[in-house]
Amino acid sequence: MKATASAHSNIALVKYWGKRDEASILPWTGSLSMTLDALAVATTVAFDDGDADRVEINGVDLKGAARQRVVDTLDLVRAEAGFARRARVLSRSDFPTGAGLASSAAGGAALAAAASWAAGLDPAPEALSILARRNSGSACRSIHGGFSEWVPGERPDGTDSFAVPLFDERHWPELRMIAAIGDTAEKAVSSREGMRRTVTTSPFYEAWRGVSARDLVECRGAIEARDLTRLGEIAERNAWRMHAAALGAEPPLRYFTATTLTILDGMQALRKQGREVYFTLDAGPNPILLCLASDVADVTAFLESLRIPRWVVSGPGRGVERSEAPLF
Ligand code: PMV
Questions:
Q1: b/e sequence 229-247, b meaning 16+ C-beta within 10 Å
Q2: Ligand 1 center from residue 104 Cα (angstroms)
Q3: From CA 62, how far away is CA 49, in angstroms rounded?
Q4: What is the C-alpha to C-alpha distance for residues 33 and 191, in angstroms, rounded to an integer?
Q5: Which pLDDT belongs to residue 184?
Q6: Which SS3 state, helix, strand or coil, does residue 153 take?
Q7: pLDDT tens-digit readout, 71-87
């Protein structure tokens, strides 16, 4: 009763921001992301005769709410499998958590898969996506490789709210996302709290819901046509719109920092010199730059010139997979 899964982060090009149901993690709007071939999480789950669930992430024993989130996913799997055995969970990521790099997405997808497989279940992709969603919303998209879309659904029970694959990782192999890691501090306000505050207090939230549906349709078309110029325009405006809605909350939510803006200003200058480079920004300070593989060297030289300490270059990656290398 042991299995290991590996999953990759995904970065949304059209963002998920705001829940219609907090408990089941059901969004108000659809979202669309690229799964990355870097930024991986591996998770091993073993059900055994222990008297409590033990959860370790990156060498730290989880406690409190963070542990409970993992236990909740294990409980869903136990209910489905019809047993009560406790589990040992060990997870390792190769990137900083909580800095807007969607660590929770890779973690949620790897946990959902490893726990299901360890319990002897073999859920269909929709069911696996729903299980990952209930751990961390954006995790539902990391089940699929390439480009995937989280369909928000309408049912109160969430059975129609899961990610569907749009184009696999071979569709646009030249596309790159470069996470510019200028800041590795944990963010002050989690996405969960940030969304809640935006939905309940921002006068701009209604507007966000309206425009993001249109962005989604256009984004699908830009990816299908492999049109970076169009995709860049859509991704940038969608990210700003999400942050605009968040800035309108009470108290306001500002996830970007001076370093973020320095990178974005420099990127604009690079663009004026003819480099096609665009950005998106999650609920954290680290922008993700979009470009083609042929421009990566110039973009990373630019980050180096700004003394950004670390960056991670990713192409479109594979979805969640079974691994034959258990962590214990
Ligand atoms: O799934 P969460 O709770 O980590 O929220 C993710 C929210 C954003 O990263 C800002 C947007 C997105 O669609 O991934």
A1: eebbbbbbebbebbbebbb
A2: 8
A3: 20
A4: 17
A5: 76
A6: coil
A7: 999 999 999 999 999 99
Can you tell me whether residue 107 is helix, strand or coil? Answer: helix
Can you tell me which atom of ligand 1 is nearest the CA of 15?
13
Whether residue 44 contacts residue 328, with contact meaning beta carbons closer than 8 Å, is answered with yes
Question: What's the gap in Å between 230 CA and the centre of ligand 1?
Answer: 23
pLDDT, one tens digit per residue, over 124-170 is 999 999 999 999 999 999 999 999 999 999 999 999 999 999 999 99
In the reported structure, the alpha carbon of residue 10 is separated from the centroid of ligand 1 by a whole-number distance in angstroms of 9
Give me ligand 1 centre to Cα 164, in Å. Answer: 17
User: In whole angstroms, how far apart are CA 286 and each of 166, 180, 322?
Assistant: 26, 6, 30
Q: Which residues have a Cβ under 8 Å from the Cβ of 44 and sit 6 or more positions away?
A: 2, 3, 4, 89, 90, 91, 114, 326, 327, 328
pLDDT reading at 249 higher than 70:
yes
Q: What is the DSSP code string of 12-63?
A: EEE----EEETTTTEESS-EEEEEEEEEEEEEEEEEES-SS-EEEETTEE--
Tokens of 45: 């789950």
Q: Which residues line ligand 1 (CB under 6 A)?
A: 12, 15-17, 31, 102, 104, 136-138, 191-192, 282-283
Q: DSSP per residue over 247-280, as a string?
A: HTSSS------HHHHHHHHHHHHHHHTT---EEE
- In which residue are the tokens 């349709």 written? 217
